[in-house]
Write a sequence for this structure.
């Protein structure tokens, strides 16, 4: 029996107030288009990309893997509806943003040395660094190709916004890497980096969807601000999970961000605080920088689990964890305030609000 086509109106989804249902529906709309775009790649890049998206396992067999949260595609589809168009109108933007996001994941995993993503080997670990670079580059190229195919003024405006957001994303990754080798990074610097690395693409998803839906620049910019603040809230939660998240839930190692010497928000906030815990943490991180050789493993560098646990405890004692959780809520409130600048149907606004709420209470 053939499967029914998904309803293209997000607002019409049964039980759409539940964000997991919204995300599932966004996947149902975007995945067929995403698969058709990936089919354009030559072997073995098509196979490598299919593995990365969770469509096949390491042996090439069909899989029902976790292809990601689908937050960015959902934002693009909702933004198209906020502009008065159908969700389907925002599909090229939803898929293009998802392609750029996964381009960044493929490269980030390689640069960070992450061996696991979504509870599976990362692409560079399974297929090698060259394939991770090539497939990431290919996804980036496909994103622009997809947006410009229709040749409309709206698609050209959307492509310009996507290119600007991608440059900011790359800026953020460069800042993130540079900060790993600094003893101190200010909270303001960290927020700027995270606004680039995470916020820019979530902001872009909103504005691209709105532009494709026919919105003017004023409305698109307001939705972009919603996405930026949502991205900063998202990253603040991610920073907490990057230190204190449960590996069985996050799919990453315990103390993941501490292992990578990341100057995430909890670390920066803790270092900026006064008191014994902050001073002791600063001394530890300064000593770590001198004893760490990036070419060696944690064990070879003399780090063990107790040491990472000790650093996490000092960050918490200095207030870094609490400050970051509070910042997530501040960014959440700013995101909701941005929605007040856009005239849209009440049911669409409710879904934007529900998604913002979802971001600050997630566990993975």
């Amino acid at each position: 029996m053939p499967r029914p086509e998904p309803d293209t109106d997000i607002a019409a989804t049964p039980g759409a107030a539940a964000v997991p249902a919204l995300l599932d529906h966004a996947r149902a709309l975007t995945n067929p288009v995403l698969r058709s775009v990936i089919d354009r790649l030559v072997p073995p890049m098509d196979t490598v990309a299919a593995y990365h998206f969770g469509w096949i396992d390491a042996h090439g067999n069909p899989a029902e893997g976790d292809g990601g949260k689908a937050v960015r595609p959902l934002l693009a589809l909702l933004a198209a509806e906020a502009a008065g168009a159908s969700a389907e109108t925002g599909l090229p933007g939803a898929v293009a943003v998802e392609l750029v996001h996964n381009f960044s994941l493929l490269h980030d995993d390689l640069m960070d040395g992450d061996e696991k993503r979504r509870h599976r080997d990362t692409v560079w670990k399974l297929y090698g660094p060259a394939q991770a670079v090539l497939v990431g580059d290919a996804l980036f190229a496909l994103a622009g190709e997809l947006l410009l195919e229709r040749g409309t003024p709206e698609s050209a405006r959307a492509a310009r916004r996507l290119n600007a957001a991608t440059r900011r994303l790359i800026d953020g990754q460069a800042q993130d890497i540079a900060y790993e080798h600094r003893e101190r990074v200010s909270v303001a610097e960290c927020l700027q980096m995270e606004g680039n690395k995470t916020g820019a693409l979530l902001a872009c998803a909103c504005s691209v969807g709105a532009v494709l839906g026919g919105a003017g620049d004023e409305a698109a910019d307001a939705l972009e601000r919603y996405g930026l603040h949502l991205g900063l809230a998202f990253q603040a939660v991610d920073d907490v999970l990057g230190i204190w998240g449960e590996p069985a839930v996050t799919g990453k190692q315990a103390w993941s961000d501490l292992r990578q010497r990341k100057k995430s928000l909890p670390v920066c906030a803790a270092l900026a605080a006064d008191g014994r815990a902050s001073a002791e943490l600063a001394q530890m991180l300064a000593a770590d920088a001198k004893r760490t050789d990036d070419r060696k493993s944690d064990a070879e560098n003399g780090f063990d689990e107790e040491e990472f646990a000790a650093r996490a405890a000092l960050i918490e004692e200095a207030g870094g964890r609490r400050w970051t959780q509070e910042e997530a809520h501040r960014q959440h409130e700013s995101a909701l305030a941005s929605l007040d600048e856009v005239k849209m149907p009440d049911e669409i606004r409710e879904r934007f609000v529900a998604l913002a709420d979802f971001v600050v209470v997630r566990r993975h």
